[in-house]
# Entry
Amino acid sequence: MLAAPEVAMYSRIPSSVPIAASLFVLITVVIAMTGIAAHAQEVETADGIRTIYLIRHGDYDHDDESDPEIGKALIPLGVAQARILGARLRGIPVEFSSLHSSTMTRARETALVIGEEFPGLELQISPLIKECTPPTRREDIMAEETEADLATCQAQLEEAYPVFFTPSPDADRHDLIVCHGNVIRYFVTKVLEVDTTAWLGMSIGNCSLTVIKIKPDGSMKLLSFGDVGHLPPNLSTRTAPEAPANLDVPR
# Structure
């Protein structure tokens, strides 16, 4: 946004300048400032910048062997993580345009908790952003997956990408998308235009925030990745945390 001129620099008018001329200068400055502010607002709203907030779900019941579409629900720690992230998002001075989640329980529940902060947003659920494992450079991971599953996952994410990562059709948008670690990391490689098999070279925490800006011409910029600054250390978890997290208040 364009910065408005400092009023103070125009208030020190030499006494030798006639009063009428001084008033003319001040009026001109006010008109100029008004015009700049109006232009800046027009640029901000007319360019159609889309900002995407990718959110990994909160921590969940890893021991639950149920289908993740109906089981593997958030544990209390995961709910706490989602509430804290919701409060952080609420403090961002923008109006969010949409709230999406995958079909999996842990993502849906995380989105519902966050959605309590934004009652005006209707949760939209998509199977295109559910968790899966795309091809990776890691041979140990590749050995655990079938070629068919890897190909299916990659096809799913490639289909999802143009659905969610497109320029805004008109005004600025701010879209919340709650999904999964593998999905977010794969999308980030696409945004950065690097080898998509490099996705596992990134680590991402539960209820972390990854922010991407999409300009009207389709170009993208990664503003932040895996940000967990809103979570205290005792509430921060990843896929395989080095130390178990808990809800105890640190002393």
